[in-house]
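User: Quick sanity check before I run a bigger batch. Here is a single chain. Can you write out its predicted 3D structure?
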Amino acid sequence: MRVNQTGLAFGLDHAHHFYKNRNMETKSAVTILAALAQDTRLAIYRLLVQQGSEGLAVGQIGERLAVANATLSFHLKELSHAGLILARQEGRFIYYSANYEQMNALLGFLTENCCRGEACAPASNVSPCDGAC
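Assistant: Done. Predicted structure follows.
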């Protein structure tokens, strides 16, 4: 993952394509779903969603989930590659947070054609998240 001068993550072509065009392609959706289709990565992502936009330092993620540093690094790379998490550096620490925009885009992609084009009634306990939930 690359980090720009402001400490925000940027990088991969498929993520760039999504942000530039505001729509998601099937290939991007498959990449995201594949990244979440593993126990440890799903646990990391869910933990980061709970933390909000502040996120957590790498060491805190490892401690809370009891994941070894090398293993954690691998899984963070996969989540980052899928555009699901963002990294920022503060001093010598790297903090990761959930990329709510990417997850909301995936949810939109998955439900784009639901209910045969009719308005769908959202589940009462599920709502899109902007990072402040």
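The CA atoms of residues 38 and 75 lie 9 Å apart.

User: Great, the batch can go ahead then.
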